[in-house]
């Protein structure tokens, strides 16, 4: 469906796949990749896709996968559904940047790209500053990773989309990914220091063009970006589908949401929480203890009607693999994860303006308790805006549900990109962004 960005999203990878990813390098970007301004004024982003495909996106949230055809055109399928949506894209003189989306022509926006290598927290990291055309002062946003292992420089479309909206963007490969050095980690303090170094490098490269600066962090980046801003202040922070609870609390809340969506009652939820207690003991021990308690929970509840619906954020992995596999795979997949990390001491002392964009159907990071805590911080005078997109899952993707119960992503919510861009640009926020439920500070 999409790359997982939640704190244990990497556990979706089998050990063999992980090893292959560690050895493989991303292919060079196709010359079609870029942001295009269509003759009707709309923006069209073309990015790399899976398996030699491309992916198109528009700022209203629509997206599709593009497959090459024998006549030189590219045909589209809706979101990640693999179902044709009728769109067709063609490129004329790729180097000069001509495009046609259905019947509308357009041209590539001449964005300025500056590649760099800079020193993070003890390792060399690969980054890229992307600037809008011209010499005007622009705000700068540093994109902070989730838990994914993909190269941000290859995969993050926001580096082009924001730049086409008049925003300077700095993307960088997280340590241990892409062209960056170091060991992959999920230690938030280490990642926050890396983000601070990325911000300093972005300011250096932008020079006189740098205006207000801040972070946009998705999923796990929602723990990292506020921490970086607390250590070294910036002008704004955006958290997308992130949380104001700990990783272990995230898993419990996700399991409770599993039970709610499945229509199960309090007795089932209580049993599922016992399972969560057992998986928590395993993760807290660094995957060295607690397996007997976990096996006992499996034996006690494995035949219950609600048991197959238990997914959580990492519990599904521990339920679906034997002890030997977990001991072998899990430590490297979640290296450095602070399972009990409490973000509230940071958020309670953070006076930087924040935008939190959350998905009402987020299975990996349910927003209920996070919204409750952010509302309290708003009442305490913190400059926090929340936006709940009611039909969005993790990654801020709307979806359709197949006959097998699996979700297939179709698009991002209307208004999501415009909300972030307006916040970064410092514009007064509109009263409506798609169907988002906005909550502004008093």
UniProtKB/TrEMBL annotation:
The UniProt record lists the keyword Protein biosynthesis: no
Gene Ontology molecular functions: hydrolase activity
Top-rank lineage group of the source organism: Bacteria
InterPro entries linked to this entry: AB_hydrolase_Est10, AB_hydrolase_fold, Hydrolase_4
Keywords: Hydrolase, Signal
Matches recorded under SUPFAM superfamilies: alpha/beta-Hydrolases
Domain Serine aminopeptidase S33: 140-230
Segment forming the signal sequence: 1-24
Keyword set includes Hydrolase: yes
Protein name listed in UniProt: Alpha/beta hydrolase
């Amino acid at each position: 469906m999409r790359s997982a960005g939640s704190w244990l999203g990497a556990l979706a990878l089998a050990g063999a796949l992980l090893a292959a990813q560690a050895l493989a390098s991303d292919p060079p970007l196709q010359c079609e990749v870029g942001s295009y301004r269509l003759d009707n004024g709309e923006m069209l982003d073309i990015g790399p896709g899976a398996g030699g495909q491309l992916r198109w996106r528009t700022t209203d949230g629509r997206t599709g996968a593009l497959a090459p055809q024998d006549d030189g055109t590219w045909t589209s399928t809706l979101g990640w559904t693999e179902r044709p949506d009728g769109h067709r894209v063609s490129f004329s003189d790729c180097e000069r940047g001509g495009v046609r989306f259905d019947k509308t022509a357009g041209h590539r926006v001449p964005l300025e790209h500056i590649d760099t290598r800079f020193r993070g927290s003890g390792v060399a990291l690969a980054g890229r500053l992307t600037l809008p055309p011209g010499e005007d002062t622009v705000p700068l946003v540093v994109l902070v990773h989730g838990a994914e292992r993909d190269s941000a420089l290859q995969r993050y479309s926001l580096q082009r989309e924001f730049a086409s909206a008049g925003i300077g963007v700095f993307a960088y490969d997280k340590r241990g990914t892409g062209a960056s050095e170091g060991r992959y980690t999920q230690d938030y303090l280490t990642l926050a220091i890396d983000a601070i170094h990325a911000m300093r490098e972005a300011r250096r490269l932008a020079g006189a063009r740098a205006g207000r600066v801040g972070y946009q962090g998705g999923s796990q980046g929602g723990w990292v970006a506020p921490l970086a801003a607390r250590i070294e202040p910036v002008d704004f922070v955006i958290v997308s589908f992130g949380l104001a609870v700990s990783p272990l609390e995230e898993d419990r809340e996700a399991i409770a949401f599993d039970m709610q969506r499945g229509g199960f009652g309090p007795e089932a939820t209580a049993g599922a929480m016992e399972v969560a207690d057992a998986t928590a003991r395993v993760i807290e021990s660094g995957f060295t203890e607690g397996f007997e308690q976990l096996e006992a929970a499996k034996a006690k509840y494995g035949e219950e009607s609600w048991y197959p619906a238990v997914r959580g954020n990492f519990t599904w992995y521990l339920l679906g693999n034997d002890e030997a596999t977990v001991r072998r795979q899990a430590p490297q997949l979640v290296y450095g994860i602070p399972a009990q990390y409490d973000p509230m001491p940071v958020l309670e002392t953070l006076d930087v303006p924040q935008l939190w964009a959350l998905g009402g159907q987020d299975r990996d990071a349910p927003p209920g308790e996070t919204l409750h805590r952010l509302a309290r911080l708003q009442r305490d005078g913190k400059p926090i805006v929340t936006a709940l997109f009611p039909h969005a899952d993790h990654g801020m993707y709307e979806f359709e549900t197949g006959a097998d119960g699996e979700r297939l992503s179709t698009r991002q919510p209307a208004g999501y990109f415009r909300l972030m861009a307006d916040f970064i640009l410092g514009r007064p926020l509109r009263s409506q962004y798609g169907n988002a439920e906005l909550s502004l500070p008093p």
